[in-house]
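Suppose you are handed a protein chain with no further information: no name, no annotation, nothing but its sequence. What can you learn? This example shows the usual starting point.
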Amino acid sequence: VQLQASGGGLVQPGGSLRVSCEASGSIFSIDTMSWYRQAPGKQRELVAAITSRGSTNYSDSVKGRFTISRDNAKNTVYLQMNSLKPEDTAVYYCHAGLRAYGVGWSIYWGQGTLVTVSS
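A reasonable first move is to predict its three-dimensional structure. Written in structure tokens, the prediction is:
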């Protein structure tokens, strides 16, 4: 099982970007999928999470600007980021709790994708 994140890049302040993360492998089911981020010199923090039923929660710093969604048929989670600010610059990591055949329930992390907000 692996999580593959994509979609990061350079964007100007006020701009938008969407990052994606696909889970692949011998997956039986996926529970909550989340996005975390880690800025230089700071601890990793939770940005947004979405349950298998679609319930969401967001950190206060992104509420109203970011939207998390998922496509269960594609085992993919998305993070739409609007009104980006320089302080959103970070490596964004996807995270999922899932059940894999022959492994059972475990937590998996993606490799991270860099989002840079700068003019």
